[in-house]
Amino acid sequence: SGRMFFHLAAASFRNADGILTLSHFTAVELISRFALEEKKVKVVPLGVDKRFLEEVPAAELKATRRRCNLPPAFLLFVGAQVPRKNLLRFLEALKIVHLHGIQIPLVLIGPWGEDTEAIRLRAEKLGIGHWVIMAGYLDEEDVRRAYRLATAFVFPSLCEGFGLPLVEAMASGIPVAASLSSAIPEVCRDAALYFRPESPESMAEKVISVIEDGELRQKLIARGKERARDFSWEKAAAETLEFYERVVRGL
Fold first, then answer.
1. Which residue from 73, 109, 85 is spatially nearest to 207, judged by alpha carbons?
2. Model confidence over 111-161: pLDDT tens digits?
3. Burial class of residue 251 (count of CB atoms within 10 Å of its CB; 0-12, 13-18, 19+)
4. 128 Cβ partners below 8 Å, 6+ apart?
5. HSE on the CB side for 105, CA within 13 Å?
6. pLDDT tens for residues 206-235?
7. pLDDT of residue 2
8. Do residues 227 and 175 touch, judged by C-beta distance below 8 A?
9. How far, in Å, CA of 200 to CA of 56, rounded?
10. What is the 3-state secondary structure (H, E, C) of 8-20?
11. Considering Cα of 175, then 147, then 93, then 116, what sign does the dihedral take?
């Protein structure tokens, strides 16, 4: 149960000599919730696979579009179909976008989850059933190309400790519209357009801007590519090693 987990976690955190976390958001949550010493907690963001930053030949993009049956223009979400990802509410936003006159599909990449059936039903009920494409689990190459084929990346999540797909999208050169919540603004900084995840209207408004405003798109793409370069596995590994050494020396 949740309470049992909380007790076990609290004991582990208290007994640990050091705690690694992926974002300042999570660090602050842990420190305040479990009354930890600040110096015990170290923030080391994840890295991004360098291949996301590399250009992809048009022929390869075309092959992925055909093989994965991806539409000519689409909004992309990458992640699990679970409640905290807030996809059910995002469907309400997609309906508003369609009513605005932008009939764009939403492609969901990632494993089925406890919301999958509810997503199907909600999309049908809203009359946008065939505009929601569940691509399922794709191999790494296809995922990397799917980012580059997308019109924009959407991340309506209610709570993220980090959110690696955000970095992958920025590295791939597509504009990001995401929730103003948890660690998301920390990861994207000025490289995303933020919406309120509890408001379908707010989500729809930002998605429309990202699709229609060419100048904004270019700005977000340029900032995103720059921001993505801040996340490297070399840096993550070096900082992790340095933290281990400090903990072992008992500093």
1. 73
2. 999 999 999 999 999 999 999 999 999 999 999 999 999 999 999 999 999
3. exposed
4. 91, 94, 95, 98
5. 18
6. 999 999 999 999 999 999 999 999 999 999
7. 76
8. no
9. 34
10. HHHHHHHHCCCEE
11. negative
> Residue 231 carries which side chain, given as an amino acid letter?
F
Query: 41 in helix, strand or coil?
Result: strand
List CB contacts of 37: < 8 A, sequence separation 6 or more.
Answer: none
Query: What whole-number distance in Å separates Cα of residue 248 and Cα of residue 251?
Result: 8
Q: Closest Cα to residue 123, out of 108, 140, 102?
A: 108
**What single-letter amino acid sits at 37?**
E
CA R_g for the chain: 19
Residue 7 has phi, psi (to 5 degrees) of -65, -45
For 147-197, give the DSSP string.
HHH-SEEEE--S--S--HHHHHHHHHT--EEEESSTTHHHHHGGGEEEE-T
154: tokens are: 């959407």
CA 192, 142, 136, 112 dihedral sign is: negative
Rounded to two decimals, the pTM is 0.95
Encode pLDDT of 80-90 as tens digits.
999 999 999 99
Q: Whole-angstrom Cα distance, residue 177 to residue 204?
A: 10
Task: Round to whole Å and give the CA distance between 26 and 46.
Answer: 13
Q: Which two tokens mark 237?
A: 């590994």
Select from 83, 125, 87, 127 the least CA-distant residue to 109: 87
